[in-house]
Amino acid sequence: MTCFEKGFWMQAKYGNSSFGFEDLEVYQAARALRKGFYKLVKLLPVEEKFALAPQMRRAAVSLTSNIAEGYGRFTWQDTTHFCRQARGSLMELIDHVNVCADQQYAEKDVLDQLKSEAERALKLLNGYIAYLQRRKQTQKQQPRQSD
Q1: What percent of the chain has pLDDT over 90?
Q2: Domains, in order of start, for the chain
Q3: Residue pLDDT, tens place only, 97-134
Q4: Could you give the C-alpha distances from 35 to 6, 28, 68, 114, in angstroms and in order?
Q5: In Å, how far from its chain's centre is CA 49?
Q6: Going by C-beta distance under 8 Å and a sequence separation of 6 or more, which residues neighbour residue 145?
């Protein structure tokens, strides 16, 4: 059963993590991607030590941090906002891959693998956002209980 069939919140509620977000498939994919970018940073030439390298690390950390922070929020709107921030960081990372390709900082297969992992993370992130929006709509449609 996939995370989409079970629902992200159900998966997190019954997962192994005390914090919940670590059990989300979208977080796990983003975390794997972040690790891949940290490896890529090590391949960069010295002249990128204070330019591209820190940008890549910040965007990679921002990706996972925004998913985690959004998970900890109390409203669907806040959670969705942080997921959209994470999606922006993911797009920034794709541009960094393109820079590395243009400058020939890494082998094509390494960069293609990162793009493939980023595409998977993007699909999961978009699915998570869609799930949150559906949950928001479901809650709006339910009648309120009177006190």
Answers
A1: 76
A2: 18-136 (1.20.1440.60)
A3: 999 999 999 999 999 999 999 999 999 999 999 999 99
A4: 27, 11, 16, 10
A5: 25
A6: none
